[in-house]
Amino acid sequence: MSTTNELPPDFSGIAQLNHITTNYETGITSVVVYTKYYRNGVLHREDGPSVLLEGKPHEYWVHGRQYSEEEYGHFLAKKALKEKLESKFGEKGYSQRGKI
């Protein structure tokens, strides 16, 4: 059994990592489950947190850059505004001009 957590450098997808610890005094083993979302080898998710700890939001990453929850909210608002403007005016911007 492999004990490495290596992913291919350009991995895109969801990786589940189990961190197993054993308390040798009590003999109790505990497992902490991390779920991580990757795109092209970096942590990335635009529709929620890219790192979940036991299924709960833990870290927000977009294109390999970590955001606080507040910063992530601002990112989503800017993204929504950009998409709205692009749908209204087109990707290159609105170029039709009228007479002045």
Structure report:
- Helix content is 21%, strand content 38%.
- It is elongated, with a radius of gyration of 21 Å.
- The model has no long low-confidence stretch (mean pLDDT 87).
- It has one domain (13-89).
- The protein has one helix spanning 69-89; strands spanning 13-23, 28-39, 42-43, 51-53, 56-62, 65-67.
- With 100 residues, the chain is of the alpha+beta class.
| Spatial shape | elongated
**Fraction in beta strands:** 35-45%
Count up the helices: 1
Order of helices and strands: EEEEEEH
Number of strands: 6
> Unreliable runs, pLDDT <50, ≥5 residues?
none
Overall pLDDT, averaged? 87
**Cα-to-Cα separation, first versus last residue:** 74 Å
Coarse structural class: alpha+beta
The total tally of domains equals 1
Determine the fraction of residues in helical runs and give it as a percent range: 10-25%
Instruction: Tell me about the largest β-sheet.
Output: 6 strands, antiparallel
Based on CA atoms alone, the radius of gyration comes out at: 21 Å
Kindly summarize this structure in a few lines.
With about 100 residues, this protein is of the alpha+beta class. The protein is about 20% helix and about 40% strand. It is built from one helix and six strands, in the order ββββββα.
Write the layout of secondary structure elements.
Layout: E1 13-23, E2 28-39, E3 42-43, E4 51-53, E5 56-62, E6 65-67, H1 69-89
Antiparallel strand pairs: 1-2, 2-3, 2-4, 4-5, 5-6
